Amino acid sequence: MMMSTAGLESRTRLVRKGQADGKCVCYWMSREQRVEDNQALAFAIASANKLGLPVLTLFSLSPSFIGAARRHYDFMLDGLIKVEGELARKAIGFRLVLGDPSKTVPDFLSTSCPAVLITDFDPLKAKRSWREEVCKETDVTIYEVDAHNIVPCWLASNKREWGAATLRRKLAQLLPDFLVKPPMFSVPKVPWRETQEVDWKKVRSTVQAVDYGAPITWLESGSKAALNKLESFISEGLSGYPDQRNDPNKEGQSGLSPYLHFGQISPQRVAWEVFKADAPQPSKQAFLEELIVRRELSDNFCLHAPDYDSVSGFPEWSKATLEQHRFDEREYVYSAREFEEAKTHDKLWNAAQNQMVRQGKMHGYIRMFWAKKILEWSETPEEAMRIAILLNDRYELDGRDPNGYAGIAWSIGGVHDRAWPSRKVLGKIRYMSLGGAKSKFDVESYVSRWS
Predict the structure, then answer these.
(1) DSSP H or E run through 1
(2) What is the mean pLDDT of the chain?
(3) What's the whole-model pTM score?
């Protein structure tokens, strides 16, 4: 997998052809909040070099965003402060504008007069809506770059994949071209000469998010911290993966999900470093399955199923079985507030909720158990989806992410799964139990830590 025929153009697509005269090439940074290993920024630099223009990076900050809390904004802004400094050292401009991106981005483009606009690929509805509105309000040429997937989402598949097996086969044909060492950073030939530092104190004051959960102090934000985390995982945790990944007491997972969510580390960089690491092949294969196949399956789901956050996005067999058991008597029924305050009868579930509220994270295996029990203890599947997404997006540091929406849809609606023997309430949705958890790890130790 070391020979590549795929360049920047292979992960880039033209969104809209427009006028090509301007003063700069503008990169609208959104999903990929990093400088190094950022193919979208690299494409902007290459485009600018061809045109003999400087590069200007734009970040449009929405004061509120689908359930994000203050802790999420703080983590993101801490990383963006470092991005601003890195760009300045590489003679690339950086501007941050405040407000609804569908309005602020066109306004900014009208004054900065770019010849080309480069933007990040993102399958989420809110982000796609922003891009569509920008297209309506400006006549500049726009390109979209997928720097978030190893294989660009639109190349991997042009339809909704119903399971990992079908996408895995398609990715296997393309990975030899895309799972390669990320290229070295190339400084623009024409430097950006205007100096205008962001007033970060003012930016933080405009954020309208609520203080759900304590500030995140156990994890440092930014690309340097992300690369350090990757290095630590490869040297200390990769060899034990996947044997320890289902034990939340051993911290056997990589811990990279917040960095991947905020685009502070390149998935291609992670994949490449793991691919060439001196570790057992089964461990590397298991990790790359999660990083590439499962993560990119989530992007595929959100791109091709706009109702990814709704019961209507479930497969037909799932909708049928949940409807059949809609009026089954629930042994327990809790309100959203009772779930949020960890006031259920189940000590393991409460401990998981407490960890999420305090730390902004939850172990992957526990996260599936957590969501499935919300289905069991909610009045309807619709209410279960609403509550699970609300809590996940409000507290998880990597919330509001395709992985989260796909994971919840898997747990509650059987998305990317198959039908299982039918049971009360869940119908044919896969069941997870406390007994199953006890067979995988020391439940009492976990409960003791987070109760």
Answers:
(1) none
(2) 95
(3) 0.95
The token duo for 216 is: 């995140």
Residue 199 lies in a domain: no
Most confident of the ranges 52-61, 187-196, 238-247: 52-61
Tell me, yes or no, whether 160 lies in a domain: no
Q: Are 95 and 57 spatial neighbours (Cβ–Cβ below 8 Å)? A: yes
Structure tokens at 360: 């902004």
Edge-to-edge order in the sheet of strand 114-120: 12-16, 141-145, 114-120, 24-29, 55-61, 93-98
Q: How many CA atoms lie within 13 A of 297 on its CB side?
A: 24
Please report, for the domain that includes residue 446, its CATH number. 1.10.579.10
**Would you say residue 168 lies in a domain?**
no
What per-residue confidence (pLDDT) applies to 1? 37
What's the Rg (C-alpha) of the chain? 22
Nearest to 200 by CA among 79, 27, 87: 79
Can you give the residue range of the structural domain that contains 317? 311-450
Distance CA 414, CA 266 (A): 29
The CA distance from 194 to 123, in Å, is 33
Calculate the CA dihedral of residues 105, 108, 112, 118 and round it to 10 degrees. Answer: -10
Number of domains forming the structure of the chain: 1
- 19 forms bridges with which residues in the sheet? 140
pLDDT tens digits for range 248-264: 898 778 999 999 999 99
**Per-residue pLDDT for 4 more than 70?**
no
Helical packing angle, 402-413 and 364-376, nearest 10°: 50
**Torsional sign, CA 297, 303, 304, 309:** positive
Let me know if residue 188 belongs to a domain: no
Cβ atoms of 190 and 92 closer than 8 Å: no
Contact 216, 397 (CB under 8 A): yes
